[in-house]
Amino acid sequence: MDRVTVFAEEVFTFYEGLSADNSKTFWNAHKDVYEKAIREPMRELLEGLAPAFAADVVIFRPYRDVRFSKDKSPYKTAQGGFLELAPGVGYYLQIDAEGVLVGGGFHAHGREQTNRFRAAVDAEPTGSALETITAKLVKAGFVVGGEQVRTRPRGVAPDHPRLDLMRREYLTVGRQLPPEQVTPTTVGKHWRSLKPLVMWVLDNAPPD
């Protein structure tokens, strides 16, 4: 059993400070904290778990793309990591000033993937299977996410039995973990509970 948590308390202090002062001056003064206490532990955690999930490791960059944003803050106030089974499909971990999020699912790579997802949600038995999977995850403490259209997609009845899922452009589930629970064993356990969801996506709504 793991005895030491992945992220030290200074990580949360770092992100509190970065949220208050998102500047190059702050970043340069604390970059060693980011490298040693955030990025490297995240990389070690993901690389240690990747073989069990047959996934590739993705560590997201700390810099924001501000080209088309009114907010010109240069740095992300969270660090994300991903075990990727296919483009945009896999298991996610994020740390910020509020704590740690563990989750999984998919972000659509284009309209065609969203259309495949909705067609599978609409059909039987695939739609009922996903409904059962997500209900079980919600009961276990996960929260269903994913961008939604305001009302419903064109052609979808207002009384569709899976309207909440049909409204989504993509599908994620996640839950917050207390920092002291963020160990390889615990994260791996939560990701394994998400495997039915991730496999459903790969089987029914894979990327192009």
UniProtKB/TrEMBL annotation:
<dbReference type="InterPro" id="IPR012808">
    <property type="entry name" value="CHP02453"/>
</dbReference>
<protein>
    <submittedName>
        <fullName>TIGR02453 family protein</fullName>
    </submittedName>
</protein>
<dbReference type="InterPro" id="IPR015996">
    <property type="entry name" value="UCP028451"/>
</dbReference>
<dbReference type="Pfam" id="PF09365">
    <property type="entry name" value="DUF2461"/>
</dbReference>
